[in-house]
Amino acid sequence: MKIIASLMPAFFGSAAIAASISPHHVANQIAPCTFTGSTGFDLLSKRNSSCQDIILSDLEVPAGVTLNLDNLNPGTSVTFTGKTVFPFFPAGWAGPLLSISSSSQLTIRGLPSSLLYGSGESYWDGLGQNGPITKPKFFQVHNLIDSVIEGITIFNAPVQVFSINGCKNVTLSGVTVDNKAGDGDWNAGKGGRNTDAFDIGSSTEVRIEGAQVWNQDDCVAINSGTNITFRNGLCSGGHGLSIGSVGGRSDNTVQNVLFENSVIANSENASPTSIPTGARIKTKYGTTGIVSNITYHNVMLQNITKYGIVVDQSYSPPSKNAPPTNGVSITGFTLVNVTGNVLPTGTNIFVNCGDGSCKQWEWTEVDVKGGKKSSKCLRVPSGASC
Hints:
Elements: E1 33-36, H1 37-44, E2 53-59, E3 67-68, E4 77-81, E5 83-85, E6 98-104, E7 107-110, E8 115-117, H2 120-123, E9 139-150, E10 153-155, E11 162-165, E12 168-173, E13 176-178, E14 198-201, E15 203-209, E16 212-214, E17 220-222, E18 225-231, E19 234-236, E20 241-246, E21 253-265, E22 277-284, E23 289-304, E24 307-315, E25 328-342, E26 347-352, E27 358-359, E28 362-369
Parallel strand pairs: 1-2, 2-4, 3-6, 4-7, 5-8, 6-9, 7-9, 8-10, 9-11, 9-12, 10-13, 11-14, 12-15, 13-16, 14-17, 15-18, 16-19, 17-20, 18-21, 19-21, 20-22, 21-23, 22-24, 23-25, 24-26, 25-27, 25-28
C-alpha cells in the first residue's frame, strides 16, 4: 500500500462556512431536529427523546458548559454544519467541551467545511494541563458501541482532544485536528501543550482511518485496549504514535495494535520533559502489565527531533537514571518498512528493556538515519537493532 509521502495542505481557515443539508427523508419519517446558534443550545438541552436525526448548525455553546450528547437513542445521527463555538472560560474548567457517551449505533459526522472551535489560543500558556488555569479536554467518547465518527474537524483544542474509553467497535474516519496555531516557545510561556489527539483506554476494536493531525503531544497514545488500528494518517508537530505509558492503572494491557501506512513528521515541540518521537513504547517504572502484538507497518518518519524509535521501560522513574524494570512485558513487537530521518541532534533508535521482559521482536526493512547511534541501549532482544 502507498505511504503518504508529503504533508497535507494547511488548514483553510477558521471562518464559519454556511452549509446546506439536502432533504433525504421520505414520507412518514420523522423530520430532523435542527438546533442553531445560542438559542439552539438551550433547545438542544431540552430535546425530545424522539430526535433520531440531530443537526447542529453554527451552534454556540455557553462558556464553561459541556455540549452533552450522552445517552442518545441507539441509531441516532448527529450532523455538525458550520462553526460550532466553545468560548473561552476565564475561570478555567476541566471540560469536556463535548461528550458523546453511553450509547450505540450512532453516526456522528461533520459536513465539509464544518469545524468545532475550542478557543485554545485563549487558554494556551505553554504549560498545558499543569498551568494555573485548568484547561478543558475537548471530545469525550466513553462507553460507545458499534458507532462511527466521521469528517469532524477540531480547531484550536485547549489540551487533549479525543478521550476514548470503554468503547467497542468504534470507527473514527477522516478526522482533522488542527492545532498548528499552538506551536510556540513553551519556555516563554507560549503555545499549546498536552494536546494529545487520540488517547485510548480500556477499549476494543477502535479504528482511526485517515486522520490528519497537527498538535503538540502524542498523535495517538494507547494506554490500554485491544485490537486498535491507526491507518493512512498524518501526524505533524507532536510526539508521534505511542503505546503507553502502560502500568499503574486499573487496566494495564495493550494487545493487537496496528499502525499502518502513515507519516510522522516534524515532531519538534520539545521541552526538558517531553519526548518528541516517531514510534514509541513506554512502560512505567516498577509497575506490571502486558504489551503484546504491536506492529508498525509502512511508517515514514520525517524530521524527528529526539528519537526515531524508542522503547523505554523506565518511564516516570523515582530518580534520574533509574534502571528499567521488567514488570510490563513487551512481546511480539514488529516493525516492517519503518524508514525516515531524525535530525542530527536526535537519536535514531533507543531501546531500554528490563531483564527478560522484551521478547519475540521482529524488525525488517527498518532504516532510520540522520541522528546519533545510541551507546546506552540495554537488553536489545534478538530480531531488533539499536
